User: What shape does this take?
Amino acid sequence: MTENIFEQRRKALEEAFFAKRNQELLDALRAQLTNEQLKKRLSEISGIQDPQVLEHLVQAGVRPETLMALSLVPLVMVAWADDIVQDGERRIILKAAEQEGLKPQDEAYRLLQAWLDEKPEDRLLQDWRAYVAALRQRVSPETLQALRSRIIGQAKRIARAAGGFYGFLSTTEAEERLIQQLEKAFE
Assistant: This one.
């Protein structure tokens, strides 16, 4: 039962992230990656170097495209928290995407740019939360903490990038509320 729920959540997050337009890309990526390649790619995307944490992610069925969505969705939602994406937020998010291996010619990168131009549906954040809830049941506390630290750290960087209210505050109240929601998802 837990396995089925986890797979459903994983697929929902991937589908929301890639908007089903990239099914061929997903299928090709899945077919070509071995466990070692998976660990290497997960490390590149997440910045996690601990071999044990990477092994836990692979054993839990976390795929690179899922981890990419897991990492980028909170950044997009924080950028939109105050109903406008600032130039600084956009630059940091696109740089984060490039650091995670996305290239401007990639469909996922173009989708991310579209999300920065037009706010994605709330369903995306709901799918993200559901996936994190399912992931909590499958990975070790150390693995979850490593993911949480990276994702929340990036989300806070995005929030600070806009400079808050007239540059006086580091984050807006809306951004703070969203970051708290993101943190709660990991509890």
Summary: Residues 74 and 171 are 15 Å apart (CA to CA).
